[in-house]
Structure formats: structure tokens, C-alpha cells
Specification:
Layout (H helix, E strand, L loop, with lengths): L2 H13 L6 E3 L2 E3 L64 E2 L7 E8 L3 H5 L1 H6 L5 E4 L10 H10 L3 E4 L20 H14 L8 E3 L8 H5 L4 E7 L13 E5 L8 H14 L2 E6 L2 E2 L9 E2 H14 L2 E3 L2 H15 L4 E3 L2 E5 L11 E5 L4 E4 L2 E2 L2 E2 L3 E5 L4 E5 L1
Parallel strand pairs: 4-5, 4-10, 4-13, 5-6, 7-8, 8-9, 9-10, 11-12
Antiparallel strand pairs: 1-2, 3-16, 14-15, 15-21, 16-20, 17-18, 17-21, 19-20
Helix pairs in contact: 7-8
The site of zinc ion has 8 residues, from loops.
């Protein structure tokens, strides 16, 4: 019995008496969440949870030291920006964890909820990139559905797959919806994201209820998927890429910003990647599950920004780095004369145009016969699509 199942059963057990459907117009709005199924009477949920937060004013410019690399589009970590190019021996290739940041954090929001649409302006104003995991069954009934995801995409957010109807993989639906097939549940959302939201591809998924019954079908479609088991992700660690853990907002009444800021501090102390999972955002009249005040979310974002050495980005962006670091760091080098070379093959459905940041003691790094430029923030940027890297004196 894995942690995800334990959590799901516990939470569902607690919440079963509250099960009901919200009827919105003529369409029964399902909804679900990943960890359990809960809807609440509106009168209990229209006011703010009171989970205020210590919204630290942040003068930092988004993720880390400010700006993004023109080469890699990765955010620039803090530092002098005047690091000298290494001039020692051509040896000791090191892939920097988390693009040179100390840790990483991703904000994910599940179920394409009305409260996400309502609070998108506040999330957008943070200037970060995160991930929305979309169900599409309420596309026709939620005002601003298409426009919100299109706008998020323009700001660099990721749109991920959370199935059409939010049912279990065995076809059981707790929300009154009708399951189609596992393939159609996933592919119809991908069709929406590519066709209507206009994202070039769909790279990651989140399982409804954290149900890993979706894992086999996800492995043939995506390169990562998030579950709901609690935890964080270590660089180079053995975490299952098709059941990434998260820290979910679950407390009745909503946790304050200080709780989430504490989670960020703990992950930073470990040098790990923390994926937050949020459901409904207050204030809202559509509190479907685990409703959290917007100031608790934005307050924690502000805290992460104030640390400067925490990389805030989407699942696809941080996840691509995490996967590729293990791949390249684990590649067996070959030598030819004085040159050392590494080769790798990216996994299926890996996003194009991604990079790693590396250091060496010295020598010349090159890809495809072209020397890599030293970045004075303290690294070389390696193009993953090239599939090879060479180091020569
Ligand atoms: Zn969900």
C-alpha cells in the first residue's frame, strides 16, 4: 500500500459524509480533487478562510537573481555575474542541481476550477511560471475557461493533463460524470490543450485522486506525472517520474502563508524540489475542495522570491532539468585522444529546447563542434537536444 493510497483513503473516509454535487446551470459539476472528493455548502465558503499570511514584500525580480538566460531561457540564479572562466585541467564535469539555484518550487493547481479563473489576475501578477492541471468537462459552463489558460500560457505557465472527467482509472466516477476510456480521458484533454489553448504539446499529467491506474497510459504520452503522495524530490534521486510527490493544501479552513513558507524553507534546507498542490482558492463561491486563501498562496510565493536562490517554475521546466541531470550525470564518458565525450538519449515526450548548467575544472566544452560560451554567472549551458557533449584541453 503506497502513501498515495493511504492518504486518499484516509481523506476520502473523512469526507464521505460531505459528498454531494454542485449543480451549476443544468450541468452537474463534478468535482473532484486529487486527494478526495468534497464539496461544501456555499454559505460556509463564500468568505475568506482568514488564512491571511505574511506576505513579504519582495523586491526580487521573479525567479532568483533576475532575468533569464538568452541561451537557455532558464532563470538566472543569484551571484556576482563576474565569475571567471575555469582555467584548470579538462576534467571534472559537474551538472549543477536546479539550474544553479539551491532548491526549486512549483505551484500546481488542479481541476480547472472557477476559483482559479477568478484569481488568475493575482497569480499572474506574481510574475512566476506554474502549472494548471486541466479537466475539460466544465469548459462550457465556466466563464473565462479558454481565455484564462490561453493567457497563462502566454505568461509561460504550463497546461497539464488531468483527464476529461476526473474519474478513477477503473471507470468509477464519484462526481456524476461518465467515464469514457483511459485513452480518451487523456487524449481529449491533450486535444483541447493543443487545439484550443494552443500549447505546442502536453508534457506532464496529474492523476485524478492520485490514482496510479493512469500510470501505464501516461508513460506512453508524457515524460512526467504527478501523484498526490506527500514528499519532495531530491536531485539525482530515485523518485518515480510517473508518480511525483507533492505537498498539498488540505487543512479545513485553509493553511496560512506561513505554513507553505515553512515547506519552502524545509525543501531549501534539503536542496530538493517541492511541488505544491492547490485546489480551490478563496474568496470564492465555488469552494470545491481544500480551499486556500489567495493571500496564503501569494504570500508563500513572495517568500520564495525573497529567498532569491529558490527556482520557481513549472513542472515541465523543473522536471526536465531533474530528469536530464540524472541522464547526463549518469552517462558513461568515452575518451578519444585528449577529449572526453558524453552521449545521452532523451526519454520519449521530453520537451525540446531544454538546457543543463554545468561546470568543469577547465578545458573547452563543445557540442557538435561548436565551443560553448562561458556564462559569467558561473556555468556553461548545455543544449539537451544535441545529445552529446565533449571536453578537450
Ligand atoms: Zn483533481
Amino acid at each position: 500500500m503506497n502513501q498515495a493510497l493511504k492518504v486518499r483513503r484516509r481523506v476520502r473516509g473523512l469526507m464521505r459524509p460531505a459528498l454531494q454535487l454542485i449543480v451549476f446551470g443544468s450541468l452537474p459539476l463534478s468535482f473532484g480533487c486529487d486527494i478526495g472528493q468534497k464539496t461544501e455548502p456555499r454559505e460556509q465558503t463564500t468568505s475568506s478562510s482568514g488564512a491571511g499570511g505574511t506576505s513579504a514584500a519582495s523586491g526580487s525580480s521573479g525567479a532568483g537573481g533576475g532575468g533569464v538566460s538568452a541561451v537557455s531561457n532558464l532563470p538566472v540564479p543569484p551571484g556576482s555575474g563576474a565569475e571567471p572562466q575555469p582555467s584548470g585541467a579538462a576534467q571534472n564535469l559537474v551538472v549543477l542541481p536546479w539550474a544553479g539555484f539551491h532548491s526549486a518550487v512549483t505551484y500546481t493547481f488542479d481541476d480547472a476550477q472557477p476559483s482559479h479563473i477568478a484569481h488568475w489576475p493575482e497569480l499572474k501578477a506574481e510574475g512566476i511560471r506554474g502549472t494548471f492541471y486541466l479537466n475539460t468537462l466544465s469548459q462550457a459552463s465556466e466563464a473565462g475557461f479558454d481565455a484564462t489558460w490561453q493567457d497563462a500560457l502566454k505568461d509561460g505557465w504550463e497546461l497539464g493533463n488531468h483527464t476529461v472527467h476526473h474519474c478513477y482509472a477503473n471507470g468509477m466516477c464519484t462526481n456524476g460524470a461518465t467515464f469514457t476510456t483511459i485513452d480518451a480521458e487523456l487524449d481529449d484533454v491533450t486535444t483541447y490543450i493543443e487545439g484550443t489553448a494552443k500549447q505546442a504539446d502536453v508534457w506532464t499529467a496529474a492523476y485524478p485522486f492520485g490514482d496510479t491506474g493512469y500510470e501505464p497510459a501516461s508513460m506512453s504520452r508524457f515524460f512526467l506525472a504527478r501523484g498526490v503522495s506527500p514528499g519532495t524530490i531530491a536531485p539525482g534521486g530515485a523518485t518515480d517520474p510517473f508518480n511525483l510527490p507533492c505537498i498539498a493544501a488540505v487543512a479545513a479552513g485553509g493553511e496560512p502563508a506561513s505554513k507553505f513558507s515553512g515547506d519552502i524553507d524545509a525543501a531549501r534546507a534539503q536542496g530538493s524540489w517541492l511541488i505544491f498542490l492547490f485546489h480551490s482558492i478563496a474568496p470564492t463561491s465555488q469552494a470545491w475542495y481544500a480551499t486556500t486563501d489567495i493571500t496564503a498562496i501569494t504570500g508563500s510565493i513572495d517568500h520564495a522570491k525573497s529567498l532569491a536562490d529558490v527556482w520557481i517554475d513549472s513542472v515541465v521546466n523543473v522536471g526536465a532539468y531533474w530528469v536530464a541531470q540524472k541522464l547526463v550525470a549518469g552517462a558513461a564518458p568515452t575518451t578519444n585522444g585528449g577529449a572526453t565525450s558524453w552521449s545521452w538519449k532523451l526519454p520519449a515526450h521530453f520537451p525540446p529546447g531544454k538546457f543543463l548548467r554545468v561546470t568543469v575544472d577547465g578545458g573547452k566544452l563543445s557540442q557538435g563542434g561548436h565551443a560553448l560560451a562561458w556564462d559569467a554567472h558561473g556555468y556553461y549551458e548545455v543544449a539537451l537536444d544535441a545529445g552529446t557533449l565533449s571536453l578537450s584541453p
